[in-house]
Fold each of these.
Amino acid sequence: MALDKNTFKKAYENKYKDIHGDEIENGNNLQRYEALGSLIRDYVSWLWLDTNKRYNKTGEKQIYYFSMEFLLGRLLGDTLMNLGLIDICKEALAELNIDLRDLEELEEDQGLGNGGLGRLAACFLDSMASLGIAGHGCGIRYKYGFFEQKIIDGKQVELSDNWLRQGNVWERRKIEKSEVVKFGGEVKVENIDGRIVFTQINYEPVLAVPYDTPIVGYENNVANTLRLWSAETVSNEFDYSSFSSGEYLKAIEYKNSVESISQVLYPEDSFYEGKILRLKQQYFFVSAGIQSIIRHYKAHGGNIKFLDEKISIHINDTHPTLAIPELMRILLDEEGLGWEEAWRITTNIVSYTNHTILAEALEKWPIDMFKGLLPRIYMIVEEINERFCSDLWNKYIGQWEKISDMAIIADGQVRMANLAVVGSHSVNGVAKLHTEILKKEEMKNLYYFYPNKFNNKTNGITHRRWLLRSNPGLTNLLCNTIGDSFIKHPTDLINFEKFTYDKGVQEELERIKKKNKERLAEKIYKKNGIIVDTSSIFDVQVKRIHGYKRQTLNCLRIMDLYNKLTNNPNLDIHPRTFIFAGKAAPGYYLAKNIIELINAIADKVNNDPLVNKKIKVVFLENYNVSLAEEIIPAADLSEQISTTTKEASGTSNMKFMMNGAITIATLDGANIEISDEVGNNNIFIFGLTARQVLSYIENGGYSSQDIYNKNESIKNVIDDLINGKYSKDREKFRSIYDHLTIFNDEFYVLKDFDSYVETNKKVDSIFKDMYKWQEICGINIAHSGVFSSDRTIQQYATGIWGPELIYKNL
Ligand code: 26Q
């Protein structure tokens, strides 16, 4: 955006006066933030209008990314950067004695997601806009986002995330673009002039009100749209005449029950529970989204028969799968198309990404619940199922088991993953191994029936937020060595490889990392009161707390190291700071127990003068996008230690790599691709292979008890869980103890323990040679370009959404 400092400054001053009716000096930083946000949004508005006009004129294909979650984080800094205004803004504010960073920190994180899946959606929006693709998000405007985590006495306590408290300058409420979503009632079937007509009657209408947020591309004059829906009652008027009769309270109750649909994000990310409110949420945003897409398409003269040439709908996991029957419903009941044509259009439009193979995360809705809430949609799903099963019967005569495995409706349930596969033209996994497991294990039968639908799209992250924004020091070094072409072409980072052998560059990398570590150390001191040694190895595991991610493995080896250090305080190890952050689902007892364990270890270790010069343990509370932006650039070692086969991809692994941390990892998810990229010598790999894990799962043969009995170090740390060492209450960590012993260690923690400990010794020996370490970091940075979500989005675009899409910024 072409704007000079003085114009910007003047505009800002005017804006401030406009909205606050006062002088800047008299206000506080929050008011200054509001004025700045509002000014930037004004600038964006023009761009936004322009982009939309252009899309309407060119009639290019519009991509809609449907997701229950968008984990955007803060928007001010990234939007300024993408507009090309960051320097001008910084300087103009400085003249007014305002530090831009102070204002940025006042913005609430937009935390409408649990973790990986929601953050991926946010990275994809950024990449679509930056590549000039007409790609938009569609989701729910939760009044309360992902809960805020407090640690009290070592335990997680959940507080509500009232992120809209101070308002949200980025969104625009578009009441005139509201849609009505219908729940419950019955379906009236009539024969009108020889045509069977289905009408939903006696339903409960809910008004879906869209709030639009602009998604600005990187210096390319594009502003796409994230449309989030909020639930309201259709009529907002209370009937005051019924006030005295008690109806008034009923009306309020009704209003609350309608608004509850978009009240709060479900905080479970890997455990499915069939809650009716969740099903309501799903249909609510999917129905509103599709209605508005079709309304817009038709308003601009589109012919419904060619809808699939002009739009694509991508569903982020199975959560928006109702898009399939909802699109069918509109094409059949409202547009009057026949089944075959509607089905062809629908399957051409919809594509689906699977994000997990954990069986406990699969969405299956009880038929009665489904049918009661969505009677017409259920009829359509039944019809889809019947037609599909009859195809199966023709192909697999008499193979009932196979057919019932593939059916959409079975055992009294509607299986969303099967519906998503049948009703879309593309099914993708999010990393090579994950896609292979989908094809050969999880969805084997569906894959052999539809081999051409399945494909891989390895995840990515936006290097704009995760490198340019979060690590300006490193970005500077990169620009000074290889130029700035990597900003638009992230794979150009490979040009950095040759510099990484240069001692001067290695020293510079070390200096940059040190600075980032100092900044984080300050934060740790401020938040936790712990002083950490910035020349120690910053060994970081930040992600959701979950059994399969194996924070327990990390804990056990710290406990082991602690034992060894107490026995021999002169043990030759490089000092380490173990840093953790992450949230546990509120109802996941084991995960909450793990948080308590981490904090108990921290308490013990940090206060033991015999060891605390060498090791420290830190748990930073309330992990979110903004905290990740501070932690990741300060990491030396990236912990990616999930049980092989369980982590579909992982995306923090890519962020760490791009910021010059070295990875210690199992060969799981995208760790495999990272390892392939950098080569064996530039990553620390340990643990069971996928084949070994799958063989254990299939054939048994694993006994954690055996390992416990035979391995003294393991026996000691396991016993330490219940012998009073980490808590006076010996029962406190009983559930972890039981999980690892009596319940045979579902995630093979004990099995991988030795190889993890040994591999960590290698980490130590390499870290001793600063030059060698930084050389490896440099190689990781140089090879991180393929993990930009720009690459991922190009692959989605050309491979799934339509090869006819042409990109202007490549
Ligand atoms: C489902 C039903 C009911 C309630 C909640 C849910 C639910 C919500 C969120 C289920 C799953 C999620 C989120 C899953 C997720 O984040 N998966 C991660 O996706 C990343 C992006 O592809 C991968 O990198 C991670 O490996 C994967 O765990």
Note: The pocket of 26Q is lined by residues 114-117, 120, 266, 268-270, 272, 278, 355-356, 361, 363, 430, 459, 647-651, 669 (CB under 6 Å).
Amino acid sequence: MSDFLIVGAGFAGLVAAERLASAGWKCTVIDRRTHIAGNAYDATDSAGVLTHRYGPHYFRTNSGKVRQYLSRFTDWHPVKYTIKSHTGGQYWPFPINLNTFETLIGKPATPGEFETWLARNRHDIPNPKNSEEVILSQVGTELYERFFMGYTLKQWRRHPRELDASVCGRIPIRTNRDDRYLTESFQALPAKGYTALFENLLAATPNLTLRLGIDFPEAKATIPHRHLIFTGAIDEYYNRRFGPLPYRSLRFEPESFTKEQLLAREKISGKPGFWQPAMQVNYPDADVPHTRIVEIKHATGQQIDATTIVREYPKDWTPDDEPYYPVPAPDARAACKKYAALAAAEPHTTFIGRLATYRYYNMDQVTAMALTAAGKLLKSHGTP
Ligand code: FAD
Ligand code: UDP
């Protein structure tokens, strides 16, 4: 008998399991995949490159508590996450900053000149309600159409108007030369990767059994337990009785290059041993089918001659796909409400994580959610 059965060996499941098991409760974590770390899973590919198998995962947080907690299981490799946008046949500095403005006007400029230009171009929208308004209100039509509209249409197959303001609003826009993609105070990757972080967590935790390659229905039937923690998709848990929730999925296309093949790319990447000039290049143009190309070696700092790039192609979700993104939009949230009401009424099941709460959450937010949920369970269950 397990005290807790935890479905999902990603951030949500393993963090909650560690807290409960360390307090003495018997926990079993299961995952239908054959590996740990959920979507943050990383592994060495056939070219020897450490790659993020479900898209790039850039750890960042403003939370001292989350950082402190995870630091028990990993050292950190600080990273300045820098990216570029490729549109109209050229690379652009991105996110939008003074260097982007100089590229646009074709000559040097001051922050004051860029601010004056923005004041003339931005739309007067005091309380932006969606992703179109949030960008128009900051930079106006020209930069919105160049960098955001096409990318968002491809990524979500929805108009930016039909997405929460927080979706495009999370991309910083600056009038200085700060070109970091992210805004959080702590930006770093686990020094040996996410999988290694969770291997350390498992090794440090007593009372925790891990079973991989097993789906929830089988686990539910065969692993007796007192309380369930579910981190999979909430509509799947309820057999989609109110219909499927919308998700966006992705297809990842990796391509590896040897040292010799990379020689011809040096003019473009500007750096021996690399294929492109930044860790991530975004492709907003409608005639390019992928949204971004990621060359994670820029971020991991791995010392290796070869490199691997991964092209990302967004796609509609079907039950055969991974539901990578809940859709951050009012209609999708409304559709989730019926499921959330059922979940709230379950006395012996806790729903946490990106899919179970249907929220476009980053890893640090999910970690914080798991710590809070485990804290509440420890309060209500006490210690064994
Ligand atoms: P998951 O990591 O999805 O783990 C859930 C696990 O549950 C999965 O392993 C799944 O196999 C398992 N599972 C589900 N249903 C069942 C079932 N019925 N039976 C058995 N097992 C089941 N966050 C960042 O902070 N920075 C980033 O740069 C970043 N980039 C991202 C890029 C992409 C392409 C994606 C998709 C996400 C990105 N994220 C990023 C978000 C990050 O992946 C999530 O915040 C985090 O992985 C959520 O953890 P989780 O445990 O809730 O879910
Ligand atoms: N976005 C965009 N152009 C870009 C980068 C991002 O329009 O060059 C929008 C797009 O809608 C995207 C959202 O901003 O989904 C958030 O981007 P982020 O890079 O944070 O997405 P994630 O890594 O979560 O896929």
Note: Residues 7-13, 30-33, 38-40, 54-59, 215-216, 231-232, 236, 250, 324, 353-355, 361-364, 366 surround flavin-adenine dinucleotide (ligand 1) (CB under 6 Å).
